[in-house]
């Protein structure tokens, strides 16, 4: 599913082109690359270990997971020094010897864990809910901290995403667990700024959904995620087009007050702002912000994101007036402490709001100083005219 290129020449194969090794399913664009890989690329030694691991996809996922865990533990090493895992109570994992991570909104001595422990906890909770046929399948444990209830972010989200995918990819393609797992992986790659890799995952996921005849709701969610990747890679027109479809589809399907519609509106507005179509962004945001504040509340992530987008559409506009800049600063000053309190200062949105506020305040001070100088000059000119 994730291996969409020839193992030798990296030619794009999509989901079905080329051929596979008959034993381990490693993919090639043709027999020439397969022979070359066997003779010169070391595949004669790797083929059996790959097969024993469960095939090329599983072997690839296992390796990527191990790499991601090492990166996450290294990145968190300073923050986790002297702490223990809240799940197994050990500093060093007893089996994998991996270090601790913390990639959520927990504070103080809370939230430290091994990625392996987080993965095992999620596996147990999901399996238990599945066995008992519970409506709450605990799937959110693959992307949400069980202590602070906030999403994992950064390299920790990436490591947990690989854990989720390697755990589920052995299931049939149509299995709901496997289909959710690829989405968790895509999100994790994006949060670690692995945008090209995430794009490949998103495109494979959407192609699979179309082929399996998935629901409109699930397709809209995947299109939303794909648009995010287009945007992150600078493909802004493609992102805008896809987000327009998603917003229209959510509005028609769920109504203006649904959380999914409001999230789609926020993403759609972001695309307008990215393309410097500020007035269109503000028109959409002025329509949706009051709905989000009424339906979701002031503390909700989507409400905060909408209002941050609105402030950005004001202060980034070259045609913005002094009053526009004052409104942007007032908006950011209002939501910044809320974002820090609810999400934690390490959360990407909270950090973004703080940065936007600092930059907007600087721009406002410069604009106000410019206005003051202009006013003084005008007054001096008027005095000179009266004297003559």
TrEMBL record:
In alphabetical order, the GO MF annotations are: identical protein binding; zinc ion binding
Q: What sequence ranges are listed for the domain MYND-type?
A: 6-47
**Pfam families in the cross-refs:** TPR_10, TPR_4, zf-MYND
Keyword list (alphabetical) reads: Metal-binding, Zinc, Zinc-finger
Q: Which domain of life is it from?
A: Eukaryota
What this protein is called in its record is MYND-type domain-containing protein
The organism named in the record is Pelagomonas calceolata
